[in-house]
Records
---
Amino acid sequence: MTLDWPELDLTRFSGAGGARGALASSQNFHVALARSGPRLLRPAECDVSQTLVEPAASFPSFLDEGVEPRAGIVVPVLEDDCLEVLACMLDVRQEVVRGIGAFLSEAERRRAEGLKSERDRRRFIACRGQLRQILASRLGISPSDVELEYGPLGKPQLSHRMPSRNLHFSVSRSGDVAVVALSTGREVGVDIEAVLPVPEADEIAALCFSASDYESYAALGPDDRLEGFFRRWTRLEAISKGLGCGLGYPSSSDERDWVVRSFIPKTGYLGSVVVRK
C-alpha cells in the first residue's frame, strides 16, 4: 500500500498521453491529514518538536491576496465551526528537515528514499513531518507516536489505536506549499493547485466536469478561464479525496452532499476544501 496518493500535476498533461491519459492516472491521488482540538501552539523559535502556528488574526476571503506563510510556521487560512485549514511551506531549512524527519515512520522514510529528486524528498519529509506535528498537537501525543492506517484505495486516516477516531483530515501539496484540512466528526477533503497555464484545460474540463460545470466554464471569457478551471478542478479533487477515491473511480456521491469552501493558501495558488454535510 502506498503511503499517499501523488498529486496530479496538471501542467504535465501535454506530451504524456494527453488529457485522457492524465484522467486515467488521476486515481493515484494524494491525501493525508486533519483536525480537532482548539489549541494552537506558538513558540518563538522553530522548535521541531512543536507545531508553530501564526495567530489567526483575520482570514482572507476568496480572491483576496494569500496570507504568505513563512518557512517553519503553520498559518491558518480558513476556519469554521467544524473545519480548519492550515498552510505550511515545504522549502524549510535542512536542519528543520532533519529534525522533523525523525518523526516519520519507517514506511514513510522508505517512501522518501524512493523519490528521485532531492527537492521532492525534502518536501515530502517537510509535509509529512509538519502533518504529524499538527495531528500530535490535537491528540496530545508525540509526533512520532501518530499512527496512520489506510483505506482500500490508500486514503490515510488515524489508526484505531489513536486517542481520537473522531478527527478527520486531508492534505494536499502543490509546489512549495502544503495544506492540511482538519474536521471533527465529518469526512473532509482538500486540494490546492498552483495557478499555471494548462494547455489541455478545455479537453480536461470536457472529460471531468459535470455538464453544468462545463457549461459555466465554457461561458467564461479568456481572462477568467484559467481561474475558473482551477476553481472547478480543485473542488472535484477535494470531493474525490473526501470520498477516498480518485476521479477515475465511479461514485454515488453527489456534490450536493458536501459543503464547499474556496480559499487562497498563498498568492498564485487556489484551493478548495469540502466537508460532508
Note: Confidence is low (pLDDT under 50) at residues 1-7, 11-17, 20-65.
---
Amino acid sequence: MEETTVWLLLNTTSSAICPLNENYKHILLPLVYSLVFLLGLPLNGAVLWLACCRTKDWTCSTIYLVNLALADLLYVCALPLLVINYALRDFWPFGELLCRLERYLFYANLYGSILFLTCISVHRFLGVCYPIQFIHFRTRKLAILGTTIAWIVVAIELLPTFLYARTGTRNSRAVCYDLTSPDNFGNYFAYGITLTVTGFLLPFCIISLCCGLMIRSLIQTDEASGVDTGLRSKAIRTILLIFGLFVVSFLPFHITRTIYLFVRVYSIGNCSLLQRVSISYKIWRPLVSCNSCFNPLLYFLTSNKNKTRLLHELHRDKVDPCLKGNS
C-alpha cells in the first residue's frame, strides 16, 4: 500500500512545515464511519419510530431522548460523504457547501448530545433529590422549552464552525479541512478553546455534580424510607450508565483536541510531537461519533416500557406473516 504523507504548513507566519504520515486514516475512518452509519441509522430510526408512532404519552425523558436521537440521525445521514472522502484518500468532490455542512453537523451532533444528556441528568437529579420541591419544574411543557433552547444554543454556538470550515487544495486535490484552513488556524484557536469550555467542560461539571449528588442521596436512603433496595440499585446503575457514556464518548476527544490545538499554535516546528498528538486526535475524532450508536440504547435501557414495546413490535412482525397466511 502506498504511504500517504501530508506536508502540513503550521501557520502563515512561520516557514515550519511538518510531514505527517496519515496512512492510517484511509483504513480506520471509512471503517468506523461505515459501522456508525450501519448501526446508528436503524437504532435512532427505531427510537423515533417507537416514540412517534407507538407512544401516546410522552414523558420528559422521552422528549429529551427523542431530540437526542434526532441529533444523532441528522449526523448519521451525512456520514456516507465522509466514508467516500477518506476512502478516496482525503479527496473531497462534493464542494464547499457540503464540506461546511458536514463539519457543522458533526459538532451539532456532538454538542447537542452533550446538552440533551445534561438536561436528562438535571431532570433526574431534581426527581431524585428534590421530588416534591421541584415537581412543577419537571413537566413536559418545560422539557419542550428546554430542548428548544438547547437547539438554539447549539445553532448559535456552532455558527463560527460553519464559517471556519472550508475546502482547499493539497497536492492538486480538493480537500475538506477538519477544523479550518492553515492560514486561519490562529483565529480558530480561541474559538476552539472557548467551544471546549462552554460546550463540554461546563456541562461535564453539571453532570458530574448531579450524578454524585443523586448517588449520595440514593445510598443514604435506608429501608425505613420505604424505597425498594432493588429500585435504588437500578437507579444507581442507570446514573452510572449515563455518566459512563458521557465520559467515554466525549472526554478523550476533547482532551486530545485541546492538546492538538495547543501544539499547532505553541509548538511550531516540533514535528515529532505534532505527529503523535495528530494521531491521537484523529483517532478519537471518528470514535466520538460512536455516541450516535450508544445514545439510542438509553431509550431502551432506562425504561422497561420502552424495552417491552420494542420486543412487542419485533414479535408482532414475526407473527403477522403467519396470521396472514392462515387467513
Note: The mean pLDDT is 82.
